Amino acid sequence: MLCFSHLRWEFVHQRPQHLLNEAASDYRIYFVEEPEFAQGAAHFRIRTVASGVTVLTPVFDAACDSLREQRLLVEELQALLDGSPVVHWYYTPMALQFTRNLPCDLCVYDCMDELSAFRFAPAELAALEAELLERAQLVFTGGQSLFAAKRRLHADVHCFPSSVDTKHFASARVHSEDPLDQAWIPEPRIGYVGVIDERIDLDLIAAAAKALPLIQFVMIGPIAKISPDDLPQAPNIHWLGRKTYDQLPGYMANWQAAWMPFALNDATRFISPTKTPEYLAAGLRVTATAVVDVVETYGKKGLVSIADAQTIVPTLKTTLGIPPEGWRQAVDQHLALMSWEGTWDAMQSLIQARLRVGQEA
User: Fold this and answer.
1) CB 136 within 8 A of CB 171
2) Which of 30, 177, 188, 232 could covalently link to 256 via disulfide, CB atoms 3.0 to 4.6 Å apart?
């Protein structure tokens, strides 16, 4: 399986890493990242992660024809593979620019975001996605909103909302030593984990922090596509930067609640945040803005509190109190139906069925 991704393997541990780590038990996985630039002959920088996934970073001179170099590297890679079936797995339609002429036994598009709605999206992205939808035999979506949008464009679309490693995050339900860069912060704390970009409502964060000066807001994650200078600053807002996946439960174990202060804009219209079940698995009550998939999957079931600019302050206060009777049991019943292993097994069944059809044709 050759996976073409716009996200680097080491950036933030999310859907691609979870699924491909599971897939590594069934396939040889080659994860092709976006390129880096250095003088010298074009090559892949190669490393293998614990699950067995081979991560490949194209490296070539910035002055060269980047699409040509990427195409040659991928063609050389595929030529080295034996005669077993080859699956192409796309996270970004942009990769079609250097793979469209490369043969495969099955083409899969795992659509985890509406990338064309993101800030600085390339102008050609929408056309390339249309081409990818023509090429792909299978399309997966990361949430119900994306499913509703893509099912009109392809005959074989399947919704696989992002899942959760419940055991990993449930360790946060047991008190653990506070990480050093958080230990000095007073309680109560309300935390956020995720990429900090144009999807975050910075004005909402500033307003909530101003209205709730005794509550500490711990913000964890890398900053992307916005200037650090734009981040609201206050004595009770703490921007702690990126943490590894393994570190996250240690931070969450020392929070009293969590939140998802998403802006409601084009970039969040189709998102289905992986952090929602992760917070819940950690035992945290969650406040979120009205992102459609969060409302439909968690809000209407009473698992997550939904708020806007007018209700965010009382809602955050409420989540610091005693949970409603039965809330934790309802959360655990919901999470019991979710696992990345189960998600991959269902995807794999569809993949194998399509491969069999192709072999019989």
Assistant:
1) no
2) 188
